Amino acid sequence: MAVSVFGGREQELVREFFGAPGLGFFVEVGANQPQRESQTWHLEQVGWTGILIEPQPKLAGDLRRMRSAKVFAFACSSPENAGRQMRLYVAGALSSLDRDRMAPGAEPEWIIEVPVRTLDDILSEAGAPMRFDFLSIDVEGHELEVLHGFDFARWRPRLVLLEDHVGNLAKHRFLKNAGYRLIRRYGNNGWYVPRETVFHVAPRERWNILRKYYLGLPFRMARNASRRVRRRMRQWWRTRDRADRAAPPLVASLGERMRILAFHPGCHDSSAALFEDYKLVAAVDEERLTRRKGSGDGVPWLAIDEVLRIGGCSRAEIDAIVATRSFFPWQYFRYPFHKELDYRFRGWLGRDQKLRDLMVHCQLRRTADAKSVFRTGAFLDDHGFRPDTVVQFANHHEAHALASLFYTDWDDALLYTADGVGDNVSYSIRTLKDGQLDCHFGDDRWLLQRGPARSSLAWAYGYATKACGFTMFRHEGKLTGLAACGEPILADEIASHFWIDNHGMINASFADDRAIERMIARVCYGHARETIAASIQKVVEDLTLRSVRYWLSRARTRHLGLAGGLFANVRLNRLLAENCPIDEIFIYPAMSDGGLSVGAGLSFLLARDGLQTWLAERYRLDDLYFGFNYHGRIDEHLAQAGAKPLPGAPAQAATELLRSGKVGAAYIGRMEFGPRALGARSILANPANLHLNHELNRRLERSEFMPFAPCVLDEDCERVFEITPVNRYAMRFMTITCAVRPEWHDRIPAVIHVDGTARPQVVRDRENPLYADILRHFRAATGLPVLVNTSFNVHEEPIVNSPAECVKALRGGRIDFVVTDQATYALS
After folding, report:
1. How does strand 559-563 pair with strand 413-422?
2. Distance in angstroms (rounded) separating the CA atoms of residues 196 and 152
């Protein structure tokens, strides 16, 4: 995305390399201007064809008007960034995705958001030939990321020109490892050819390469270090006044309506939420937009922009930002001077991570005040927020806990959270009593403890998942399903490493999480996965039940609020509901780290307004439909794909297809937030046919032992399932299992697990009238008040979000029909 200063002579050398004029194929990444200083214009003039990639919309338009090659208006980057919108910093003829890697003295004049793809993806779409002739990459410091998105073994270009200022050898080593050798250095470009290519390198060129890439490297690194330190110092002085200027105190906003952006910048399950004071306007998981299950790459910019789109506002209109102490780009941290130099030096060597954990840096600085570690002003300025935007950071387990309390009307409660680790602990205990919310374990007092013994049952469960051959942080639900199929013969040995202390806390003596992994791997080695699943399930159930019972007794409450990844375990939740002396249980539906964004927003409001105001604003959840509403666009996409609307009302037409054994999808209104499909993006099927389970598993590429969940109308739920006042609220969000009444076992076998339980969703008309209408029509037609409801996704993919993803599933035969607010559609 830069303009070369060595145009004419280098172009002559390129033509000499390829010999006599003839047909060839080029790819230019960072094409910039159509003719002036172009690396490929001269080749196009002699009959070559090719591909031009340029993210600046204006330049891409110029290229389309003046060049015959195919033009793609995208930025190229690594697979991790593909599919995102990223910021492009533009300074005259220069532009880069990396502000700090721009040429010395170049200061961005403006910033634009550009779509990002890998080079592989673009070449595949364009139908580029294998082993094409010429590849030029000039993207102002982002070249290494572009190379990571390019398969050299597949494409094998004959000549690669790569801009490289040789601040380190990372790009050079990458190409060597890809089977290429350096044959020439001209200007800022390195020339590389496949290792097997016969090419004589003149002695003068050998000396030039030796001088540039090896002898001069230490001096160049020192010079660049000086430049970057001076640049960082200038930026620091420019942002210091803004960063240190007193932000409006939280209490100053009391009574005023605020737009609050909350997000969780995690290494997995990132998400964002938008509040207008206490009204949750939007909440979206990053995975639904990246299309990578459990997506977490720090700040979830796609989800942030999505919730702002839903809320109809821009970044500049946000009044407050609140985030968890998690992963941010390293340049937004304050370091001692020697550490600043050290981290930058590692970066130049290509040996430093781009993201850093804010919680860890708080520990290193011995402070719970994240704002003293974080460069607030620079973050706001770089990303288009107002300089007076309030920025706060929330405690991990407080965010979990508050979400489990806010959506209730309880006057007293025990709030119990459990997960892998967050802000240095794996559990938290809070009690609400007599208008006072007390934390007994797990707040910022524990943040600064160094090296506490690890006792996370969630980690133990995750490592057991890994021992079964599944993926940790993703497939724990498979173990919950498998647990009913085995005997817990390993439970005693696993449980011997844990205990309940005198304060009702789950304890262990593991030095770190790896010690837990080693223990689980040793105990589980050689055993069937059913045995492992049953054993770890029993350990988790027994220990958690004992701890929760202790705290319920101590708190003298009969209300239990749960959150954190451990309570994604619906079988555990049922055990607690049925074996604890409580009147009601509520598991926050987005119980894992994806729900932290909502909890962080609630934490901000609690700090702003105080407990009594916060408690008075609470309400019970009606639904989790917080995604974008595509309205009629789904119908347009289906029609364009050749799907035909069936005669009759949507619910009536869908019922006829379900009766005949067809599998359909509900694509209705706004997408759900959290891990469960609750009727907006659900796959529906007839529960009477057990064979349908095998067919659904085949179509969706899922495990055969995983049960499918039922949905049932509120008016029918108690006659089919053992639903009580204790679990009824939780049943609306599929966060708990219960027993199926015996008389229904033979009638709805597709939704009953081997242990006679199910995980129903109780459906009410007011949240999703069409969904309820389908259930009512199906009951009238078949006598069955239940349908299969499973998430609208293929195995290992996130739940469907956009109309295009829905159409893809229909065309791929994953489903037979789609029901929308307007009609029921099927392919001819």
Report:
1. parallel
2. 14
- pLDDT 10s digits, 163-202: 988 878 889 999 999 999 999 988 889 999 999 998 988 8
Specify whether the CB–CB gap between 558 and 581 falls below 8 A. Answer: yes
- H/E segment holding residue 720: helix 717-720
Does residue 250 have a pLDDT over 50? no
**Torsion angle of alpha carbons 730, 733, 737, 738, nearest 10°?**
60
Cα separation, 507 vs 492, whole angstroms? 16
Written as six digits, the tokens of 484 are: 């009913």
What's the CA gap between 811 and 795, in Å, rounded? 17
Q: What would the DSSP string read from start to end of 758-816?
A: E--EEE-TTT-HHHHHHHHHHHHHHS--EEEEEESS-TTSPPP-SHHHHHHHHHTTS-S
Q: How far is CA 523 from CA 497, 511, 518, 528, in A?
A: 11, 18, 9, 12
Q: What is the DSSP pairing of strand 49-53 with strand 70-72?
A: parallel
> Cα–Cα distance between 165 and 140 in angstroms, integer?
10
What is the mean predicted confidence (pLDDT) over 343-369? 80
Residue 696 in this model has a pLDDT that exceeds 80: yes
What is the C-alpha to C-alpha distance for residues 642 and 640, in angstroms, rounded to an integer?
5
Asked if pLDDT for residue 665 goes beyond 90, the answer is yes
pLDDT digit string (tens) for 745-804? 999 999 999 999 999 999 999 999 999 999 999 999 999 999 999 999 988 899 999 999
| Confidence at 241, pLDDT banded by 50, 70, 90 | very low
The pair phi, psi for residue 26, each rounded to 5°, is -120, 160
Dihedral sign of CA atoms 560, 564, 568, 571 in order: negative
Continuous segment of H or E residues that includes residue 643? strand 643-645
- The Cα-based distances of 646 to 161, 596, 679, 823 in angstroms read 56, 42, 20, 7
107 closest CA partner among 3, 240, 242, 231: 231
pLDDT, mean of residues 292-317: 95
Burial (CB count <10 Å: 0-12, 13-18, 19+), residue 302: buried
The alpha-helical segments, DSSP class H, found in 25-69 are: 41-45, 57-66
In a 13 Å sphere around the CA of 1, the CA atoms on its Cβ side amount to 33
Q: What is the largest CA-CA distance in the chain?
A: 89
Residue 2 has pLDDT above 50, yes or no: no
Pairing of strands 817-819, 664-667: parallel
* 301 backbone dihedrals φ, ψ, rounded to 5°: -65, -35
Q: Which range is least confidently modeled, 252-256, 285-289, 354-358?
A: 252-256
Are the CB atoms for 412 and 433 separated by under 8 Å? yes
For the record, the structure tokens of 351 come out as 């040996």
- DSSP output for 378-446: HHHHHTT--TT-EEEEE-HHHHHHHHHHHTS--SSEEEEEEEEEETTEEEEEEEEETTEEEEEESSGGG
- Per-residue pLDDT tens for 358-390? 999 998 888 888 988 999 999 999 999 999 999
Per residue in 636-654, pLDDT (tens digit) is 999 999 999 999 999 999 9
Do 31 and 38 meet the contact criterion of CB atoms below 8 Å apart? yes
pLDDT > 60? residue 326: yes
Residues pairing with 280 in the sheet: 275
Residue among 52, 56, 55 nearest 41 (CA): 52
Report how far residue 302's alpha carbon sits from residue 263's, in angstroms, rounded to the nearest whole number.
Answer: 11
Q: Cα(144)–Cα(165) distance, rounded to whole angstroms?
A: 12
pLDDT per position as a tens digit, 429-484: 999 999 999 999 999 989 987 655 689 999 999 999 999 999 998 899 999 999 99
> SS3 of 756, please?
coil
Distance CA(787)–CA(785), nearest Å, equals 7
